[in-house]
Design a protein that fits this description.
about 140 residues; alpha+beta; about 20% strand; elongated
Amino acid sequence: MMTIVTLTTLTDPAPEPDPDPATAREPVSAQEAVPPFTAATDRRISPRLPTGAVTFLFTDIEGSTKLWEAHPQAMQPALARHDALLREAIHAAGGVVFKTVGDAFCAAFSTPNDALHAALDAQRALGAEFKVPSSSPNDLE
């Protein structure tokens, strides 16, 4: 499953100035506030997140829990390949992966078209490498 969401603006409100010059600090931009890694995986990510109008792509393997239960040995290499294909499609379309949780990816893009291209390219790559069951993964027992 892939979901694309666009926000018209992603900007930080202007901070209120500190009246005491001794404790005043320079404002921190949203770019600087993002940690250089995802907490769950400690994988390095690009610090160049888009600003202004931002489009988000969220992905998740439908029925992955049941797939793990039914095919635990096959899922580990399949998930590694899934992750590589998604990262490749996202980066090729100019996106930035800002978070991963299990098999889910969260990515940001400068335009909706870039996110759509990444989603389509990822789906095509996954479909070319993985056999899609004739029934829904949710039907696995």
